[in-house]
Amino acid sequence: MTPGKGQERLLRAIKDVAAGNYSQEILELTGPQYPDDVRELAEAVSLMMVRIEAREQHLEMLNDRIKANTLNTVTAVAGALGARDAYTEGHGERVGAYAERLAVRLGLPEDETEHIRMAGILHDIGKIGFSDQIFSSDGTAFNQDMLLEIRSHPRWGYDILCNLDFLGPVLDYVYCHHERMDGRGYPRGLCGDEIPLGGRVLAVADCFDAMTTNRPYQRGRTPGEAFRILGELAGNALDAELVDAFIDEIESGGMEE
């Protein structure tokens, strides 16, 4: 191969590397069939490419660690709600597990299933903004100010998480878990397919765990009782197809502890 042709190929390979396309062509140009000047320059560019790839990999690993640490912190904050409200303790983990099981039964992709599971764990993080009056409630009727607080927690949760853009659709699912199929939910009054699937999955899982959990003023319902109520809510508050699939899942796989 003539030196001129080798130089043309080297120039093309260098342009590819500069564009971020790290092909093997630059490495091939270090072979003995090429002139010394072509080989030396190709070797130098190849070493530079290796260092850049190593640096990018290091930054990616560092970024993953930062994301993981941030997510662990947020999850710990959500779990700390149990210190203020005994009912809340373990609720997020159970909702996450129920939602994940329903997502698997629906055949959703693995990444979407993980988003739904994480949203289940974090869905009530906005309750951090609740007053002690709400957490100390013994089941008596809430006044208007307390109801406004309660209806605000999906928005507060979204606001807490919104800067963690790596959470992706988790943010929308947290925001939408109290919307209803008939449009009478909150905070935005979405209806039907306007509600993301992940939000509809969370709504079913959240509703079931809320009904079957013991509270100071009310013993948790049995699975059969909860199934009956879910059936009554299907089509109005909850997605009817998801309710059917969820009941099948619990009947076959049992309840979370």
Question: Would you write up a description of this structure?
Answer:
It is a single chain. The protein is mainly α and 257 residues long. The protein folds into two domains: 1-83; 86-253, Hypothetical protein af1432 (Orthogonal Bundle). The protein has eleven helices and no strands. The protein has helices at residues 3-18, 25-28, 36-79, 91-105, 110-122, 132-135, 144-161, 170-176, 197-212, 223-233, 240-253. Helix 5 (110-122) crosses helix 9, helix 8 (170-176) crosses helix 9 and helix 9 (197-212) crosses helix 10. It is elongated and about 85 Å long. The mean pLDDT is 82. Residues 8-57 form the HAMP domain. One of its GO terms (cellular component) is membrane. InterPro entries: HAMP_dom, HD/PDEase_dom, HD_GYP_dom. One of its GO terms (biological process) is signal transduction.
Brief account:
This protein has 257 residues and is mostly helical.
CATH superfamily of the largest domain: Hypothetical protein af1432
Report the radius of gyration as a whole number of Å.
Answer: 27 Å
Known CATH architecture of the largest domain: Orthogonal Bundle
Spans of at least 5 consecutive residues whose pLDDT stays below 50 are none
Q: What percent strand?
A: under 5%
Portion of residues within helices: 55-70%
Q: CATH fold name of the largest domain, please?
A: Hypothetical protein af1432
How many domains comprise the coordinates? 2
Number of strands: 0
What is the average per-residue confidence, as pLDDT, rounded to a whole number?
82
Order of helices and strands: HHHHHHHHHHH
Major sheet, described briefly? none
- CATH C-level category of the largest domain: Mainly Alpha
Tertiary shape: elongated
Number of helices in the DSSP assignment = 11
Intertermini distance: 72 Å
Structural class, by secondary structure, is mainly alpha
